[in-house]
Design a protein that fits this description.
By secondary structure, the chain is mostly beta strands. The chain has one domain: Jelly Rolls (Sandwich), CATH 2.60.120.760. 0% of the residues lie in helices and 52% in strands. It is built from no helices and twelve strands. Strands 1-10-4-7 form a four-stranded antiparallel sheet, with no helix packed on it.
Length: 139
């Protein structure tokens, strides 16, 4: 079951700093045991191959992308400590992110009956699920 659904695109321009990380979104928290599915897109005119978009959880980089046009996809189940996420960019020189050139969206899944598959099913047969009162499914 989806418990959170967030999307945002920058309405105003954002100035970056030379060789210094610039926080774009965050921090935001995700509860322990929940799964986050995130996608971020960033375009910066004149950016170089060393421009980096980073997603951090508790100050540890968990996903990153490099280059002038950046796309980042991340999906993981949060551990017992919970999630404390930030999205940041680092550019080698001062740059401007124009209005609409940054977008980020994420969904959080979890709760009773939610399943995270770690591999594709071996057949197309429907799984035998038991339905809980609130409509969530369990096997």
């Amino acid at each position: 079951m989806v418990t959170e659904d967030f999307f945002n695109s920058n309405a105003e321009s954002i100035e970056t700093f030379a060789a210094t990380p610039k926080e774009l979104y965050g921090p935001w928290c995700i509860g322990a045991g929940k799964t986050i599915d995130l996608h971020a897109e960033l375009h910066i005119d004149g950016a170089s191959e060393t421009t980096e978009l980073r997603l951090k959880n508790h100050d540890e980089v968990v996903a990153h992308a490099k280059g002038p046009n950046l796309s980042l996809i991340y999906k993981a189940t949060v551990g017992e400590e919970g999630g404390h996420f930030t999205l940041e960019v680092q550019t080698p020189s001062i740059r401007t992110i124009e209005s609409g050139d940054l977008s980020m969206g994420y969904k959080v899944y979890g709760g009773e009956g939610y399943h995270v598959l770690t591999e594709l099913p071996q057949s197309c047969e429907l799984h035998d699920y038991e339905v809980h009162e609130e409509g969530a499914q369990d096997d």
